[in-house]
């Protein structure tokens, strides 16, 4: 089976070397030396002031909302993974959906101001497939209306925008280091802020909100991660350059072999260095998408409807917001297999099946 993704694994002996160190120290978690080393290496790689390595890419969104004191309405995108919206709901905030741009698939900043109410406190936007939101426009709106900005940058590790890490924008950016990501720690995530006044609070919120054994400052959460996960990150980080290069090579083959008469994909900003995190294709209709999906599965190829459904349509949303562009694109999009080790002949096979079933 050719799956939509396959986890990159470093040399086993390199990982075992770190595991042996953990065994010798008998410190498995609680801000151990490998975790601190990984945080330092990530800050250096990304060029950010502060970063906290956490347990996953969802809890960091919750911590971000808590750290910024967001309690009411959050303007957000309907075209993302459900974790974006779930984090808002779990913090007892209200998601307010704004439709997406039909070209970039990111939140449409021209629609944000119309959605602002007296209860609006923040904007939580996703850099979809690692493609940057219109960060300047969002920042201008946020400043005008005194709103906080949180970027769900789960897909954006290694992406730079105008020479800066995409994770350095907003009041807070978060990232996922899940095993399916360009850079992974098996499970994991990070929270990044360039605001010094937030640094200690983020550190404490990740660790139950207390300093030492006696100073309990506020209600934090257990967002810590272990030495074992940090070890995987330390093994994988030196390989990020080659991982991105390998993914770009796969991108190039898809670009060349797919017939684009009836297909489209997101328009990328010209100001980025991309990480090639996903290869989404939007078909002319949902029926064509389903036909292609069925044909691929019959050939033991498993794409993914990523993202589907449009989050504004989930049955547990407190309010319904019409987002016709997101609802349309989410019904027609497939992410194609993309991972280090995917062979050129396999990519060719996938493209041939798509081309044949699009033209029927």
UniProtKB/TrEMBL annotation:
Q: Which UniProt keywords apply?
A: Aminotransferase, Pyridoxal phosphate, Transferase
Q: Which residues form the active site?
A: 181
Q: Which biological processes are named by the entry's GO terms?
A: polysaccharide biosynthetic process
Q: Which residues carry this modification: N6-(pyridoxal phosphate)lysine?
A: 181
Q: Which GO terms describe its molecular function?
A: pyridoxal phosphate binding; transaminase activity
At the top level, the lineage of the source is: Bacteria
Matches recorded under PANTHER family: PROTEIN RV3402C, TRANSAMINASE
Q: What does the sequence similarity comment in the record state about its family?
A: Belongs to the DegT/DnrJ/EryC1 family.
User: What name goes with this protein?
Assistant: DegT/DnrJ/EryC1/StrS family aminotransferase
Q: Tell me the organism.
A: Arundinibacter roseus
